[in-house]
Amino acid sequence: MYLGIDLGTSSMKCLIIGDDQEIIYNVSSKDISLTNPKSGWSEQDPSLWIEALELCLEKLKEKVKLNEIKSISFSGHMHGATCIDKNHKVIRPCILWNDTRSHEECKDIMNDKTVMDIAGNIAMPGFTAPKVLWLKNNEFDNFKLIHKVLLPKDYLRFYLTGEFFSDLSDASGTYWLDIEKRNWSSKLLEASFMNISQMPNICEGTEQTGVIKKDIAEKYGLNINCKVFGGAGDNAAAAVGLGLYEEGDASISLGTSGVIFGSTKRFLKNYDDAIHSFCHCLPNTWHLMSVMLSCTSNINWFVNTFNSSIKEITDQLKNSMFSKNLINNSPYYLPYLTGERTPINDPHVRASFHNMGIETDRSLLVYSLIEGISFGLNDNYQALSKTGIKLDNLFVIGGGSKNEYWIKLLASILDRDLSITEASDAMAAYGAARLAFLGFNNLDHSEVLKPPTVKKIIEKDSTLNPLLKVRFNDWKNYYIN
Fold it and tell me: Which end of the chain is less congested by CB atoms within 10 angstroms, N or C?
């Protein structure tokens, strides 16, 4: 058996697969709390991650013999700065990916524009390096204590093995990694007054990073020979779960945030449009990723604010799509509830409706809501396309993929057919388990990972595309930096 541990921002999932890669058991922890000491701040106590892991292992122990687990790997939320001292004690709460306090430090790091060519990205408050530079500028006593900076899932690895490692996909989000050379960059480290001795070792997602410590094995009933492998950042792990690694295979994830993920065999970049250029967790593979901060969270906001429902939104969208007159008379919605990343990189912009008139009713607002989210995804898609990446096969996953009318609208805006595939909310944990399987059995990923099964192809409506193209261009003009 092979265990995948997925450390999410709000909970942990642990998933076990067998030698046939079929899921045997899948358990989750209770909610992991976070704190917001000030506006824009987001922190988490790493001890809560250990508690969540213990709870998941206790649940698994009721189902299987944990000493039969051959190997373990990880997935986790990226960018978090988990700082530990020379005694291996956590110095302060981890500053999370969605913390925006370090926007000034991003400017400082990018004073030398050449850093972007090395990192392949704009420095953003979400990344790890600006957070640590913020510590230097605001909590210098804590900064002086830093012995190692670990990403959240890599702190779990240290807890289980006593080893300091980070896989390349997760390390890509620190702003300390040379993305093309797949190694730490002394220049990027110096930009935030860090050095390579404070970094964990770099590894591929399928590379062994130690074995379970004796005391940990005895505590949880794990095999003392249980091997631990590199793992991945959450989106790269989910891609492995789906089987996405070939150039041309890509996914659109319609979740709380919207992510377009595409694999590539070479280092590509478009930092001008805030595209993320990262190493994949598989050898000699990279990936590009656009991130729309608010996707289905816009729908949740609308439902809660206007006492609506998913059924109402689906029904209204269905009616609107067959009326070009209704579409033409709809207002425009900018879906920036929590700022935006790709392509405008503006943490301060907020959502808004535009061009409302006396004729604007609830049904028009519903259509405008879904159209605005879709336009945001098209903005992401166009920014990603500028890199020259192949996007031959585009699979739609996430909760939003269940609404075929929405996918029809999105396909018509993108002017291409879209494939719906099965993807559970445990896909990252499944990807982590697959990495443990690949590493333990020393298998090439091409032998194991197959493209996802297409459940249904949603065809574009070519008659709608010209109208939507005009509306998209109008929509773009409502954003003012």
Answer: C
